């Protein structure tokens, strides 16, 4: 099974690109979706114990948790030490299931792939990019997003240029979905998977 690590900074089109890989027949694991599930399940008591008052009605209050950890490196590290192992376990279970089902391609959508030293875990690394202006436009359209939050998120991510330099393949999502679909198909062909 070919393992592809998919990454890119916030607002670059990772989720759309992951969907395009899925439409081409790849098994896709979405780390963001895994975190959402954990924030309504297994991570709730652990996060409440570490950050009292950040859960409500059996789920993590993402806004309250964000207020507590964004801009506080120690708090963020504490949160990551809780969440990352749970996400990795979900990813391993997903990949085991994909192998067992006979999947030939598996894509793991990992926002902080380079930042967490995960590139070595994959046969190929694909970086999704759209350029700084398009990224800013997309991110600032998100509900509740502010310049301050955006700046704090970018501080934690490797610069886009560095991600592109480390990539095996770059998918440019600035030209629309159909163009990105063509790039995904070309990448799979190049990988010998299409």
Automatic annotation (TrEMBL):
GO BP field: coenzyme A biosynthetic process
Superkingdom assignment: Bacteria
GO MF terms held by the record: ATP binding; dephospho-CoA kinase activity
EC category name: transferase
Pathway: Cofactor biosynthesis; coenzyme A biosynthesis; CoA from (R)-pantothenate: step 5/5
Binding-site residues, ATP: 11-16
Subcellular location, principal: cytoplasm
Keywords per UniProt: ATP-binding, Coenzyme A biosynthesis, Cytoplasm, Kinase, Nucleotide-binding, Transferase
One GO cellular component, as annotated: cytoplasm
Catalytic reactions on record: 3'-dephospho-CoA + ATP = ADP + CoA + H(+)
Assigned EC number: 2.7.1.24
Subcellular location: Cytoplasm
Function: Catalyzes the phosphorylation of the 3'-hydroxyl group of dephosphocoenzyme A to form coenzyme A.
Family: Belongs to the CoaE family.
Protein's UniProt name: Dephospho-CoA kinase
Gene: coaE
């Amino acid at each position: 099974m070919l393992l592809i690590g998919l990454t890119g900074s916030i607002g670059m089109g990772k989720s759309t690109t992951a969907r395009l890989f899925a439409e081409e027949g790849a098994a896709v694991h979405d780390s963001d979706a895994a975190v959402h599930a954990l924030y309504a399940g297994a991570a709730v008591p652990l996060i409440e114990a570490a950050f009292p008052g950040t859960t409500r009605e059996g789920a993590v209050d993402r806004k309250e948790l964000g207020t507590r950890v964004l801009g506080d490196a120690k708090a963020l590290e504490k949160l990551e030490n809780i969440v990352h192992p749970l996400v990795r376990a979900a990813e391993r279970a997903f990949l085991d299931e994909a192998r067992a089902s006979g999947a030939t391609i598996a894509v793991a959508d990992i926002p902080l792939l380079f930042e967490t030293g995960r590139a070595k875990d994959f046969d190929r690394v694909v970086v999704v990019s759209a350029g700084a202006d398009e990224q800013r436009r997309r991110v600032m359209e998100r509900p509740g997003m502010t310049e301050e939050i955006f700046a704090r998120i970018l501080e934690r991510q490797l610069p886009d240029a560095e991600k592109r330099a480390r990539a095996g393949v770059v998918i440019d999502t600035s030209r629309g979905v159909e163009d990105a679909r063509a790039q995904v198909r070309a990448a799979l062909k190049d990988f010998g998977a299409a």
